[in-house]
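Table S4 entry, Peptide methionine sulfoxide reductase MsrA.
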Amino acid sequence: MKIMLQKLMPLALALLTISCHSKPKNDKMAETVVSKTEETKTEKQKKDLSQFETAYFASGCFWCVEAIYESVEGVEEVISGYSGGKEKNPTYKQVSYGKTTHAEAVEVYYDPKVVSFETLVTVFFGSHDPTTLNRQGPDRGAQYRSIAFYKNDSEKQIIEAFIKGLEEAEVYPSKIVTQVKRFKKFYKAEDYHQDYEKLNPGNRYVQQVSVPRLNRFKERFPQLLKKEAH
């Protein structure tokens, strides 16, 4: 625990004129995105995830968070979506423009024999700045707030103990504003958001925000990575 805490440092992204929004620039590009998205959708539909546990986190743009968790050993699949709010069946347009009480979130399918929930919490705090209220990097608004969801009392205790450890170790100069919320409902995002970083390497946001954020995480926690992620 102490080793992990020592590796956690505040993350600071320069304010950019880009954000977690994207549209294909032309019809040809749009066709390519749709084609790749359909392939990814088919691959994910073939997977049997019933044997895995699930965990839910929100820490900014879900394109970034999905890529980070997919690099972790023991994680089988990560789905981008929306959670933490009260509206039913929210859309990306509604959430991304702050028209709902939901946050962009991820659903993590993991093997508890390989990676523990506490390690997933370590990944959560080690890959974003939990002290910025309703903001992560260039993305602003409650839809990008920091939330660690729990499904039972054990998970809640793990999250709260981790936060307490960070505060006692004074890892961050500012107060941690992460919400600790009981998980209620997760809504899967539109298909084109799934594996977005991997399928859209030329996207400006991906190049300037998502990939650097993923690489910083990899540098801090090489021991948590899948072999192919090194």
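The first strand starts at residue 53 and ends at 59.
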